[in-house]
Amino acid sequence: MANTTFHVHLSMRGAIRNFSKRELGSLFKNAATGRWLTADEAKDALLDNLAAGRSVLPMGAPCAGFDYAGGGCPGHTTATQAAVKPLRRGPTLLPKEPR
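and the corresponding structure tokens:
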């Protein structure tokens, strides 16, 4: 039995096109100072990366084999010997349907 893990990546074109100024302003921190980039600074950083030929960025440290051109994380397979336990049936937190 094997598990495959995929790391999350961000489409830069999608972020530029779809994120609001508020979302862009809380996307990146300056690694040296810890200061959050403004929306305009974040957009400039995304545009600079696009100009450098990258289309996706890892959301976290890049993993081995990360493809900045668009593929993102290739997936990482690890062998496991543990059996998957069935879900324990217990009380539900869902509201009851009206009668």
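(Above: one complete record from the training split.) The beta strands are 2-5, 9-11, 56-58, 76-79.
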